[in-house]
Amino acid sequence: MKRWLGRLLVAALALLALVAAAVYGLNVRGEAEVAPRSASDAAPSADLVAKGAYIARLGNCMGCHTAVGGPAYAGGRGVETPFGTVFAPNITPDAQHGIGAWSASEFWRALHHGRSRDGRLLYPAFPYPDYTRVAREDADALYAYLQSLPAVSQANRPHQLRFPYGTQAALAVWRALYFRAGEEVAAAPTVLDEGDGPGTTEQLRQRGAYLVHGLGHCAACHTPRNALGGSRDGQPLAGGILGGQAWYAPALNDPSEAGMQHWRPEDIAMLLHAGASQHAGVSGPMAEVVFGSTQYWNATDLRAAAIYLQSLPVAEVARQPAQEPRRQVMELGRSVYAGHCASCHGDAGEGRPPGFPPLAGNRAVLLSHAGNVVQMVLRGGYLPSTLGNPYPLGMPPFQQSLGLEEVAAVSTFIRNSWGNQAPAVDVVLVDQIRERR
Fold first, then answer.
1. How many other β-carbons are positioned within 10 Å of the β-carbon of residue 356?
2. pLDDT (tens digit, 9 = 90+) per residue, 127-171?
3. Quick check: helix, strand or coil at residue 411?
4. CA distance 158 to 128
5. Are strands 84-87 and 240-241 parallel, antiparallel or unpaired?
6. DSSP collapsed to 3 states, 53-92
7. Residue 58 burial (CB < 10 Å; 0-12/13-18/19+)?
């Protein structure tokens, strides 16, 4: 018996060693030895710094790496995930707490391979699964810009992740399952020849794909995730719940959600630049993206992203017809709507564009996941103030004046009136969203 148990233990240890070796191999696959900081790293040209400043806008780096009210790029902002909170680090050129001692090669490894200067694996809340598609020349420009910033001596906050998610071993297994470093690519040019010929359109589409899947890291929010936070195979940009939040990033390949295949490229570009177009407006986390990033994209990149998003294949999604809500819920919702909503959105949900959007036929209202509607009712809806729309109107929050049942009822009423048809909103969902801060 003891001999049999001993053999079983040896076999288990051997299997564990093989798994560990495989995980290690997958985590270091393709990594080249990093070069130390050089004189060229410390003395970039003004043109390279300017290019890097624009790339930082493309990637919205400041959005995560700046805490509310804190110094730019000094870190400290928390990124909520289903596994706890990841705090963005200081990326100013402070030698102790930031990246002042990093080389361009080490910075490239962080973007491309998700590994820090000291060799630690980085958490994918930093979207290196997308940034791995960024070209080395763009990474070097971004590095040059960050090194030109004022150094801020601010210590990094430790992550608050539940066990075992805060361990390097768990992260290594996750990466072995879900992350592969991309092939090194050349950056699609920022400025392309003018014209509308097929060659130029294809160049723009390629540039748009580079932005959407790389620097723009749109898939980080707009792709569904499994229970371990890995992207679901074969479903890029098919919509997903933002980790640790109740917002739903709608599918970009489904015209019934946020797909723009039937829009004009000019309208898509306007939405990204101004935060509003004749078709839609942005709110919640996407409003932050427009405010901090896409409103600053140049006209060519806006058009490139628009052409690429317009070219996405339309997904075939089978939806079950929604059950008719209970009459009592609809009556309560009608009463709440008349008292709080109709003055802006109209008795028949017709709205008063462009300031007050219609609710009848509004696809943002009809999403299968009702979280966004509930968020808007509870916390209000605010378009970003942008260069193209500096004085946007907003919707006030009602979480202090409406109870759980009233919020659920008015959300259900809006989703099932004037020809709208969508699943009813549950009081439990409203309570869960209200409790999140």
1. 16
2. 999 999 999 999 999 999 999 999 999 999 999 999 999 999 999
3. helix
4. 19
5. unpaired
6. HHHHHHHCHHHHHECCCCCCCCECCEEEECCEEEECCCCC
7. buried
In angstroms, the CA 337 to CA 302 distance is 37
Beta-ladder partners of 356: 352
- 190's tokens: 């920022």
DSSP code at position 238 = S
SS3 386: strand
Q: Give the DSSP H or E segment for 94.
A: none
Q: What CA–CA distance (Å, rounded) separates 144 from 41?
A: 7
Would you say 248 and 239 are in contact if contact means Cβ atoms under 8 Å apart?
yes
162: left (phi over 0), alpha (psi -120 to 50) or beta: beta
Which residue, chain included where needed, has tokens 């739903």? 248
Q: Which of 291, 226, 227, 280 is nearest to 252 (CA)?
A: 280
Comparing C-alpha atoms, which of 106, 99, 108, 114 is closest to residue 134?
108
- Residue 383's closest CA among 223, 248, 272? 272
Dist. CA 177–CA 116, nearest whole Å:
20
E strands in 53-208 = 78-81, 84-87, 160-161
Percent of residues, the chain, with pLDDT higher than 70:
89
CA nearest to 285, candidates 244, 345, 340: 244
Q: What is the pTM (predicted TM-score) of this model?
A: 0.90
CA–CA separation, 403 vs 28, rounded Å? 53
How are beta strands 84-87 and 78-81 bridged, if at all?
antiparallel
Alpha-carbon dihedral angle through residues 155, 160, 161, 167, given to the nearest 10 degrees: 40
Cα separation, 52 vs 46, whole angstroms: 10
Q: Is 429 helix (H, G, I), strand (E, B) or coil?
A: helix
Q: Convert the pLDDT of each residue in 59-97 to its tens digit.
A: 999 999 999 999 999 999 999 999 999 999 999 999 999
Residues with Cβ within 8 Å of residue 415, at least 6 apart in sequence? 365, 366, 370, 373, 421, 422, 423, 424, 425
Q: Which amino acid does the sequence have at 3?
A: R
3-state SS of 297-325?
CCHHHHHHHHHHHHHCCCCCCCCCCCCCC
Measured distance CA(361)–CA(357) in Å, rounded: 11
Q: Which of 255, 240, 246 is nearest to 361 (CA)?
A: 255
pLDDT in tens, 263-321: 999 999 999 999 998 888 999 999 999 999 999 999 999 999 999 999 999 988 777 77
Q: Take residue 289 and report the two structure tokens written for it.
A: 């993206």
Return the amino acid letter for 412: T
Instruction: Count CB neighbours of 345 within 10 A.
Output: 21
